[in-house]
């Protein structure tokens, strides 16, 4: 009995040594493929990643390799359909691995950016938003709302952005989501809500270009509420940074004229 146990132990040890050697080989191949990718030799990198996934399907690098094949096929090789097939294979073979959420998100992005198929993108973003990965989940919720908005589903888009900022109030997409919530509320004539959302976006401000856009939108909101002096103050504040100086100067001049006439 003891002899049999010793044999089993030895076999397990040999198996572990073999697995470790295979993992090291896969790691070396992955590093080499990544070096090729970083050097801009995308076709060679793709071939190496594919060989790795084929020869080491149980390696912890296999799902990463398939993910980068799909990304590279779409971004650099113009192989949009192949990219979808590769990412779909990554999801099918490794549904519980670390790269599954990113693969699902990229599938959604391909339908949106590669095919302009917003209906299908919505379906895929909904799937991506179900993952627990916080980065993927937040990006998916934002893009889901964006595609809903594109298709005229304004209320559902607003609800989705609201869901996003509630779950990720300090996430990297929060500022943009609050800005879009402001735009959505303004389009519905809900000026109080629009102002509140624009001010929340400004509190989260990390992007100077977006901050200028938000202040311009807020100024327009205040103007619509006949708060002309506050609106004028904001227009003048962003004038030096506004990309179209002539347009904002016309806006300022027109608002100054309105204020002057109103004072008569």
Which labels suit this protein?
single chain, 264 residues, mainly alpha, 80% helix, elongated
What does this entry look like structurally?
It is a single chain. The chain is mainly alpha-helical. Helices cover 80% and strands 0% of the residues. The chain is built from 13 helices and no strands. Helix 1 runs antiparallel to helix 2, helix 3 packs antiparallel against helix 4 (80-93) and helix 6 runs antiparallel to helix 7. The chain starts with a helix and ends with a helix. Mean pLDDT is 92; it is low at 6-19.
**Helix-strand category:** mainly alpha
Mean pLDDT: 92
Q: Could you tell me how far the N terminus lies from the C terminus, measured between alpha carbons in angstroms? A: 107 Å
The backbone outline, from C-alpha atoms, is elongated
Helix percentage range: over 70%
Most strands sheet: none
Strand percentage, roughly?
Answer: under 5%
Rg, Cα atoms, Å: 26 Å
Topology:
Blueprint (H helix, E strand, L loop, with lengths): L1 H37 L3 H14 L6 H14 L4 H14 L6 H15 L3 H11 L5 H17 L3 H14 L6 H14 L3 H13 L4 H17 L3 H11 L6 H19 L1
Short structural description:
This protein has 264 residues and is mainly α. The chain has 13 helices and no strands.
């Amino acid at each position: 009995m003891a002899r049999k146990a010793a044999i089993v132990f030895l076999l397990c040890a040999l198996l572990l040594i073999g697995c470790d050697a295979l993992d090291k080989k896969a790691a070396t191949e992955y590093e080499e493929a990544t070096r090729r990718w970083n050097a801009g030799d995308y076709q060679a990198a793709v071939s190496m990643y594919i060989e790795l996934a084929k020869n080491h399907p149980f390696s912890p690098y296999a799902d990463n390799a398939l993910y980068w094949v799909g990304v590279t096929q779409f971004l650099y090789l113009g192989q949009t359909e192949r990219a979808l097939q590769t990412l779909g294979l990554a999801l099918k073979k490794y549904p519980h691995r670390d790269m599954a959420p990113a693969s699902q998100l990229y599938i959604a992005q391909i339908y949106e950016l590669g095919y302009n198929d917003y209906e299908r993108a919505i379906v895929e973003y909904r799937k991506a938003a179900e993952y627990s990965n916080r980065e993927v989940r937040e990006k998916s919720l934002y893009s889901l709302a964006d595609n809903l908005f594109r298709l005229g589903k304004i209320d559902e888009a607003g609800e989705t952005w609201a869901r996003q900022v509630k779950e990720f109030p300090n996430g990297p997409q929060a500022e943009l989501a609050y800005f879009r919530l402001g735009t959505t509320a303004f389009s519905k004539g809900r000026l109080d809500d629009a102002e509140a959302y624009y001010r929340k976006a400004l509190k989260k401000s990390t992007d100077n270009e977006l901050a200028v856009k938000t202040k311009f939108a807020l100024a327009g909101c205040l103007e619509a509420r006949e708060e002309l002096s506050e609106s004028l103050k904001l227009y003048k504040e962003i004038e030096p940074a506004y990309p179209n100086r002539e347009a904002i100067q016309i806006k300022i001049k027109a608002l100054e004229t309105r204020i002057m006439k109103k004072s008569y």
